[in-house]
Amino acid sequence: MRVPVTVLTGFLGAGKTTLLNRLLRTPDFAGAAVLVNEFGEIGIDHLLVERLTEEVALLEGGCLCCMVRGDLVRALEDLAARIAAGTPVRRVVIETTGLADPAPILQTLMTDRRVLRGFALDGVATLVDAVAGAATLDAQSEAMAQVAVADWLVLTKTDIAAPGVAAALTARLRALNPGAPLFEAASVPAAALLDAANISAGGRAVAVAAQPAPQAGRHDRSIESFTLTFDAPLPWQGVSAWLGMLALTRGESLLRVKGLLNIAGEDSPVVVHGVQHVFHPPAMLAAWPQGHDRKSRLVFVLRNLPREVVEQGLSAFIAATDEKTIMEVR
Ligand SMILES: Nc1nc2c(ncn2[C@@H]2O[C@H](COP(=O)(O)OP(=O)(O)OP(=O)(O)O)[C@@H](O)[C@H]2O)c(=O)[nH]1
């Protein structure tokens, strides 16, 4: 019996980790091992996948489509050894980085003999953000590729999208990939994302075969990713004001920001997410992940926006609110 593998893909911030956390709570995905592939110097997603499963591994292949294949094979071989030694794993879920064409991962899963010994690709769920999706499809070819290879399309954030926007996007997705059933993230039953072989394996094989082989260094040079780390607790006002403003004024360049923050006066970490023009409501985790150094980390993925602009603005806002706090205390 080979272990089925589900691939969750979708552009930066589409809602992959959110859906993954929901799926892991269902009986259909119980006993799943999770592999997370991140774009960025330091991933934090593996900290955000709730500890519903013991088996969470981070694939840190910075240059995703070029490096990830070796890492993926190694991670799956590792997992196969642990399964052979008695670890019960019923399914594997791979959360791909939002900034990559998933074809190399699928090629690996469908053709690598070492992988095929223990695992079988079940299906690819592609998440599309109802708010940012249309702009993303216009600007990023990776997003098109993600939609093209989907066995299932899942529309997220329909709850905050303007009326009519989701309907227009749905029509576009149907045209791009007519074979894939389309669901809304809020209501898709976990069982609907199983056994893709029953629906559209033919379509996927064609889409994957049509992809050019990945080459090192072909990534969009206008995109930059970096992580800022802060030792001292941060003032919430300063950080949130700056991130909110950045999303508002430079949303088209702010492909993604996410952070796990140590906020002054809070015992638990605060998680922040920005996706293009949307700065999502912050969430508080129940506690710091075990072994975490409690430093704040903010990961940015920017397009056509110099890193210095973000760093200087953030420092200025932090300094301004720190002073204000001090003045108020006096
Ligand atoms: N309102 C709303 N917010 C959502 C929905 N799905 C996800 N979000 C929010 O969108 C933000 C990004 O969600 P994630 O699940 O981290 O997105 P992701 O695709 O894993 O992000 P990357 O791994 O960085 O590509 C978070 O603040 C989520 O709470 C949705 O259906 N509705």
Q: If you had to describe this structure to a student in words, what would you say it looks like?
A:
The chain has 330 residues and is of the alpha/beta class. The chain has two domains: 3-209, Rossmann fold (3-Layer(aba) Sandwich); 223-329, Hypothetical Protein Yjia, Chain: A,domain 2. It contains eleven helices and 13 strands. The protein has helices spanning 16-24, 45-48, 64-84, 103-111, 113-116, 133-139, 141-148, 165-176, 201-209, 236-250, 307-329, and strands at 3-10, 32-37, 56-59, 91-95, 119-129, 152-156, 182-184, 223-230, 254-261, 270-275, 278-279, 283-284, 296-303. The strands form two sheets. The chain has a seven-stranded parallel sheet with strand order 3-2-4-1-5-6-7, sandwiched between helices. Strands 8, 9, 10, 11, 12 and 13 form a six-stranded antiparallel sheet that branches. The radius of gyration is 20 Å and the shape is globular. The model is unreliable at 60-66 and 213-218 (pLDDT under 50). It binds guanosine-5'-triphosphate.
Summarize the structure.
This protein has helices at 16-24, 45-48, 64-84, 103-111, 113-116, 133-139, 141-148, 165-176, 201-209, 236-250, 307-329, and strands at 3-10, 32-37, 56-59, 91-95, 119-129, 152-156, 182-184, 223-230, 254-261, 270-275, 278-279, 283-284, 296-303. The protein is of the alpha/beta class and 330 residues long. Strand 2, helix 2 (45-48) and strand 3 form a beta-alpha-beta unit.
